[in-house]
Amino acid sequence: MRVGILGGGQLGRMLALAAHPLGIRCTVLDPSPDPCAAQVCDHVRGEFEDYQALYKLAQVSDVVTYEFENVPVESARWLAERLPVFPPPAALEVSQDRLVEKSFFRDRGIATAPFAAVDTREDFDAAIRSIKLPAVLKTRRFGYDGKGQAVLRTDAEAVAAWESLGGRPLILEGMVPFVRELSVLAVRGRDGTIAVYPLTENEHRDGMLRKSIAPAPRLNEAAQRQAEEYAKRVLTELNYVGVLAIELFEVGGQLVANEMAPRVHNSGHWTIDGAVTSQFENHMRAVAGLPLGSVEAVGHSVMFNWIGDHPPVVDVLKLPHAKVHWYGKEPRARRKIGHVTLAATTAEQRDERVREYERSFLRHE
Fold it and tell me: Which Gene Ontology terms of cellular component type are present (predicted)?
């Protein structure tokens, strides 16, 4: 089995690493001359709109997947006319436009923050009157890791946000008074089988994920069931194949959907060391038409992202329960260059190991 991957970043790298034990050979398509995924698999260099490069990828693949959601939908559709593409291009189309995504959730009974389309200054003013401040103004397309958005708490911040972001399709979303941020990862096979991982609690800073705890502490069965139901509705509606992530807010004991990612997800990195089957292996199993693996958590895990900088790896490895994952990328501001997962058998042991790590290395996080 040969799997082509659109994108050669760290997610493509970890997909390729998970594919090797399954006997699956991967090739990434990426415009960079040396993407980090190319350190572990074959590489076709080319832009995602370059049809000659897409043809080369198709020639060495039995199925194609992708590692990020800003792949041009037209390119995914072109490939889908020649070989299977999973997740389907329709999932890309939904996830690439925040207004389409929020409407998709709402129409399927999945709770969201209040929202309104903003194309003109008149739309913006009307949306603020309707939704009220505080709110978040976001670009409808190409925003990630906190980019392309502004928090509005005052009229002055609203004016500044419009001056910065106005002139392109936008969406205004009401600020959600959430207790915590969660995510649910689910996988659907070619045969329609669905498996859902335990909910993960996430901490962000400056718009980027810093820490994930799984299974999420203080988790009740009702929240897990609601998350599973949300995921199953999306997976089934889109005839989805592969791993899907939905980012959620916990509000008053209920879950509110923020956004979805039609791919493996940063908040699921803990599954490499903390689940029977990682999200990367299950994604590969799904797109290759293989049976899905167990999504059961093995003990309790915490994942810390390394962004822009990292603690001394040798010192981290002195912690016997630490699992380091280095992406083969040069450090750079706001760049994800690796992560470490701390494993434990109990929640109490997990919390003690987190305190130990944070005392020693938090200055680098």
Answer: cytosol
Same domain, 140 and 185: no
The per-residue pLDDT for range 60-70, each reduced to its tens digit, is 999 999 999 99
Tokens representing 286? 């799904």
Q: Binding site: what residues are annotated?
A: 98, 138, 143-149, 173-176, 181, 204, 258-259
Amino acid at 314: V
Binding site members for ATP: 98, 138, 143-149, 173-176, 181, 204, 258-259
Residue 255 and residue 158 in one domain: no
- For 331-354, give one letter per residue: b (16+ CB within 10 A) or e: eeeeebbbbbbbbbeeeeebeebb
Any domain includes 156 = yes
Q: What angle do CA 194, 269, 226 make, to 5 degrees?
A: 40
Domain count of the fold of the chain: 3
Helix (H, G, I), strand (E, B) or coil at 150: strand
In this structure, are 207 and 239 located in the same domain?
A: yes
The string of DSSP letters for 35-55 reads -GGGGTSEEEE--TT-HHHHH
Q: Where in the sequence is the domain holding 157, given as residue range(s)?
A: 114-174
Nearest by Cα to 26 from 351, 315, 329, 283: 283
Model confidence, pTM = 0.96
pLDDT digits (tens, 9 = 90+) for 68-102: 999 999 999 999 999 999 999 999 999 999 999 99
- Which CATH number fits the domain that encloses residue 167? 3.30.1490.20
